[in-house]
Design a protein that fits this description.
- With 376 residues, the protein is of the alpha+beta class.
- 31% of the residues lie in helices and 35% in strands.
- It is built from 3 helices and 21 strands.
- The strands form 4 sheets. It has a 6-stranded antiparallel β-barrel.
- α2 runs antiparallel to α3.
- The N terminus is likely disordered.
Length: 376
């Protein structure tokens, strides 16, 4: 008798355990008939790409730092963030008084050197004339000495005058060359002073938009210090970090979907992979991927974006989102069975357009009702 009672107890426990183990599964159907639907569709089983979201930030393709090439006090900042500029526009004006004084001094020095060149050339002309006269006299005296007309002493005197004139000509030529060299140096000093003066007005080298203003009037500007930040690329890109296990799924030139939540458009953007870092970040174990974005109104640098990295395909069941009835946290759909229309518990996933993914509860091919007749 005791053995029989023990066997019955064990049997009951096994039944309870089986029931408990199956309690996590989604119930196949809600008991009781359901109202007839107004229209029906088939639960479709399709293959969809699996995607991984790599978060990133929208940035300008080219971000230019505007710096001063000379040291000076800032007098004016002519632009503010958001201003559009074109190549050649004035951006920042520095104090130019010291540069102007240096230019004036260098021009005065150049003028003095020019006068020295003129004097040296005049001296050269005089030396040439004296040399020509001494050379002519020496030749004539040499001819007359051969004819026994003049003495040897007179010839020597003419030769001495000729040699002195020749030496004077050489010195005059050297004086002109030295004066011209100094004139060239003075000209270079003037050019340098003009360049320095020109650097006191900082101009835009390319067309773009002012992103940041990093200096105010009265600040000291010097080479290496950023004054402004310009976005000059003309297009934007998403910079996202893709983890090392997925980087093999991304290739240069690939067209990938990009979702920017701040945009009002529902469709994701399609960008092209423009650049990939060859090395992973040792801290995050991720690779930097830059995706060129199309020109879209309302898209600005600094926005949050998600890069959709393809991971292959998977089969999912899709039904119209209108077919899912939600009561609290429970989700049901009306399914046609042999016993009639039944409300089946389901669990849904991602939304694809006007259809929603059914993770559990349906296997595909079922006839699903969209709406209840009579507005119920």
């Amino acid at each position: 008798m005791m053995n029989t009672i023990l066997r019955l107890s064990i049997g009951v426990l096994l039944v309870l355990c089986v029931a408990a183990c199956g309690s996590d599964q989604t119930p196949s159907a809600k008991r009781g008939p359901a109202n007839e639907p107004a229209s029906v569709v088939l639960a479709e089983r399709v293959s969809l790409p699996r995607l991984h979201e790599a978060v990133g930030t929208v940035k300008a393709k080219t971000d230019t730092r505007v710096e001063a090439q000379v040291t000076g006090r800032v007098l004016k900042v002519l632009v503010r963030p958001g201003d559009k500029v074109t190549a050649g526009d004035d951006l920042v004006v520095l104090d130019s008084r010291a540069s102007q004084t240096r230019l004036e001094r260098s021009r005065q020095a150049e003028s003095s050197v020019s006068s020295m060149v003129s004097q040296a050339r005049d001296a050269l002309d005089a030396a040439k004339a004296a040399f020509s006269k001494a050379e002519s006299t020496y030749r004539r005296m040499s001819t007359l000495h051969e004819q026994k007309v003049v003495t040897a002493e007179e010839v020597e005197k003419a030769e001495s005058a000729y040699l002195q004139a020749k030496a004077g000509l050489g010195q005059a030529e050297q004086g002109v060359a030295a004066a011209q060299a100094r004139a060239r140096e003075a000209g270079k000093v003037v050019q340098e002073a003009e360049l320095v003066l020109g650097y006191t007005t900082i101009k835009a080298q390319e067309s773009g938009e002012v992103a940041k203003r990093l200096v105010e009037p009265g600040d000291l500007a010097f080479p290496g210090k950023a004054l402004l930040s310009l976005q000059t690329g003309g297009s934007l890109q998403l910079e996202a970090m893709v983890r090392e296990s997925l980087i093999g799924q991304v290739r240069l030139g690939d067209s990938l979907s990009v979702i920017v939540s701040a945009l009002t458009e529902t469709e994701p953007l399609v960008g092209e992979v423009d650049e990939m870092a060859p090395l992973a970040d040792p801290v995050t174990r991720s690779f930097l991927v830059k995706v060129r974005l199309p020109v879209v109104p309302g898209l600005y640098p600094g926005m949050f974006g998600r890069l959709m990295v393809p991971l292959g395909e998977e089969e999912v069941v899709l039904v119209p989102e209108a077919a899912v009835v939600r009561v609290g946290q429970l989700e049901t759909v009306m399914v046609k069975t042999e016993a009639g229309w039944q409300s089946v518990y389901v669990r849904t996933g991602e939304v694809h357009g006007q259809r929603i993914e059914v993770v559990s509860g349906l296997s595909g091919g079922e006839t699903v009702g969209l709406a209840v007749a009579g507005g119920q």
